[in-house]
């Protein structure tokens, strides 16, 4: 943050290890440690949750989100169209004159586990996304270029790797959502989302393009959970030019 000076920090899940801080005091302490770097620097930040955040944890996803929301510079929201989830929201970014929106960020809770596999973005959440996208277009008379973040990768992430047209590293097999519920098709239909980025697979950090949408991973930042000894920790940085917001740039900054 000190070198890149971001305007917004996004955390893409597995922020805490639920089984190691099962009760409220432990969750609040862990989140306070997470919040401190952004809060000290007065940088707006937003979170979504992964599968480990709520695994074995007695504090619900919605309650965890409300703890994040208690911080001054946090922009997260606890709403979700799915009662057991929290964090379906969007962040509208205005131009440098603070007049009209030039960019948008979608945050979606992809859940934790389902039928022996990982959670998936459900049809109700896809309908929510399409409604927000349509409302933004109607309100401002144009599609607002967007990035979308959630934790568990799509099946299409694996298609990007299989195509060979990617930049970065793949150190483990993708662990995608249990079902392809049609989100990628909805993104193609709506035409506003230019990039989809996830976490979940801790040692994957590649980016590629599929049918005009960039699919990729953030860089694993934390040292908790599993990893790979020689896999450098870092962050993924996004650069948005307000004059050409649909042509975002991205790079990795290593610790």
SSE diagram, text form:
Elements: E1 9-12, H1 24-41, E2 45-48, H2 51-54, H3 61-69, E3 89-94, E4 101-107, E5 113-114, E6 117-118, H4 123-140, E7 146-149, H5 155-163, E8 166-170, H6 183-190, E9 193-198, E10 204-210, E11 213-217, E12 234-239, E13 249-254
Parallel strand pairs: 1-2, 4-7, 7-9, 9-11
Antiparallel strand pairs: 3-4, 5-6, 8-10, 10-11, 12-13
Helix pairs in contact: 4-6
Query: Count the strands?
Result: 13
Query: What helical percentage do the residues reach?
Result: 25-40%
How many whole angstroms does the radius of gyration measure?
17 Å
Please report the distance between the alpha carbons of the first and last residues: 11 Å
- Mean model confidence by pLDDT: 96
Q: Could you spell the SSE succession in H and E letters?
A: EHEHHEEEEHEHEHEEEEE
Strand order of the largest sheet: 3-4-7-9-11-10-8
Oligomer: single chain
**What's the helix count?**
6
Can you give a write-up of this model?
The protein is an alpha/beta fold. The chain is built from 6 helices and 13 strands. The protein has helices spanning 24-41, 51-54, 61-69, 123-140, 155-163, 183-190, and strands spanning 9-12, 45-48, 89-94, 101-107, 113-114, 117-118, 146-149, 166-170, 193-198, 204-210, 213-217, 234-239, 249-254. Helix 1 (24-41) links the parallel strand 1 and strand 2 (45-48). The protein is globular and about 45 Å long. The termini are close together. The model has no long low-confidence stretch (mean pLDDT 96).
């Amino acid at each position: 943050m000190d070198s890149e000076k971001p305007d917004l920090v996004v955390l893409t899940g597995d922020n805490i290890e639920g089984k190691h801080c099962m009760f409220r005091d432990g969750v609040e302490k862990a989140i306070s440690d997470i919040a401190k770097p952004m809060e000290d620097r007065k940088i707006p930040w937003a979170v979504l949750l992964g599968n480990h955040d709520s695994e074995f944890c007695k504090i619900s996803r919605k309650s965890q989100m409300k703890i994040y929301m208690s911080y001054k510079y946090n922009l997260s929201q606890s709403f979700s169209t799915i009662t057991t989830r929290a964090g379906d929201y969007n962040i509208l970014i205005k131009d440098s004159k603070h007049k009209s929106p030039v960019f948008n960020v979608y945050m979606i809770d992809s859940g934790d586990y389902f039928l022996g596999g990982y959670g998936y973005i459900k049809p109700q959440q896809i309908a929510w996304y399409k409604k927000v996208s349509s409302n933004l277009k109607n309100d401002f008379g144009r599609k607002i270029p967007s990035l979308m973040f959630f934790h568990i990768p799509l099946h299409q992430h694996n298609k990007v790797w299989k195509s060979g047209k990617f930049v970065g590293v793949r150190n483990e097999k993708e662990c995608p959502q249990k079902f392809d519920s049609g989100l990628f098709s909805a993104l193609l239909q709506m035409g506003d989302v230019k990039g989809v980025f996830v976490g979940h697979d801790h040692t994957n950090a590649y980016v590629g393009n599929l049918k005009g949408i960039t699919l990729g991973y953030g860089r694993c930042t934390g040292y908790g959970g599993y990893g790979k000894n020689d896999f450098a920790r870092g962050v993924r940085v996004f650069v948005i030019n307000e004059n050409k917001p649909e042509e975002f740039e991205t790079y990795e900054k290593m610790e």
